Amino acid sequence: MKSSILAAGCDMGSLTIKVALIDNGTLLGSKIANSGAEPAQTAETLMRQLLHEYNKNSHDIDICISTGYGRQNVSFANENRSEISCHAAGAYFLNPSVRTVIDIGGQDCKVISLNDQGQMNNFVMNDRCSAGTGHCMEYLASVLGLSVEKMGQMRPFLPFIPHISNKCSIFMELEVLQLRVAHYSIRSISAGIADATARRVATLAGGISINKEICLTGGVSKNILVTKYLQKYLKTPVVLLPYDPQIIGAIGAAIIGIKKLQYRF
Does the pLDDT at position 230 exceed 60? Predict the structure, then answer.
């Protein structure tokens, strides 16, 4: 068993690319960027920048695991793993009390159940419709001239929020536009979008046994209103991880790499 391992993780998401470095069990750092027109090249650039930041080079990496939408296109990865296993491993590494991971990614949403060893018990996934995903929220936020994170900070003026009922992202956009025509404030519409997203995720989560502690990963978790409404529908608190929730998949990929070398799993 090697005493010190430098592991890298690369999460090739549909919207963003994330890389992380873990040295001897300590998270050194990470980087994130939009996927761009050449995501494979973006991944290489990010990893090169991250290595340079810590005075290391590619030859110092003992193992690199890729994950995400484009995981098979990472030229510097030794192998790839699913987003489900990587988000589970990353969340548990950062908080071993976590038993349920809800990952709201760019193209899908996953609810993952863990045991007390951080191993996956079960999962459910919605990948058939973009509604309730990062791509959908990013698009609806752009209709309002906001980012997903900024939209979550738009607290409504009204004592109630508009109910967005459609489960299709295209018709959700029409509802948002109709609310603008009806002179609803951007704050209230933002809350309505967050509420609709939370309801959709909570419905998905109903297909699996939910155990505390629950955490969120993925870019949508930066929208604090989604977290607030999700807690209401799940009737339980959501814990915050001590790191950027968008990087969890890349962190988990590196952790899986370490375990592979140490324990040959």
Answer: yes
Look-up: residue for tokens 């409404």? 229
Question: Is pLDDT above 50 for 265?
Answer: no
Give yes or no for a cis peptide into 213 (omega within 30° of 0).
yes
Structure tokens, 79:
């192998």
Closest residue by Cα to residue 236 from 137, 99, 133: 99
**Alpha helices (runs of H) in the chain, residue ranges in sequence order:** 39-53, 83-94, 134-143, 148-151, 169-181, 186-205, 224-234, 248-263
- What mean pLDDT, rounded, does the chain reach? 90
Q: Encode pLDDT of 185-221 as tens digits.
A: 899 999 999 999 999 999 999 989 889 999 999 988 8
Q: Which residues contact 73 (CB under 8 A, 6 or more apart)?
A: 12, 39, 40, 43
In degrees rounded to 5, what are phi and psi of residue 240?
A: -95, 135
Phi/psi-derived region of residue 183, left when phi > 0, alpha when psi is between -120 and 50, beta in every other case: left
CB atoms within 10 A of CB 20: 29
Q: How far is CA 8 from CA 16, 23, 93, 249, in A?
A: 17, 9, 15, 11
Rounded to 5°, the CA angle 6-86-117 comes to 90
Q: Which domains does the chain have, with CATH numbers?
A: 1-95+244-265 (3.30.420.40), 97-240 (3.30.420.40)
**pLDDT, tens digit, for every residue of 61-89?**
999 999 998 999 999 999 999 999 999 99
Q: Is the pLDDT of residue 13 over 50?
A: yes
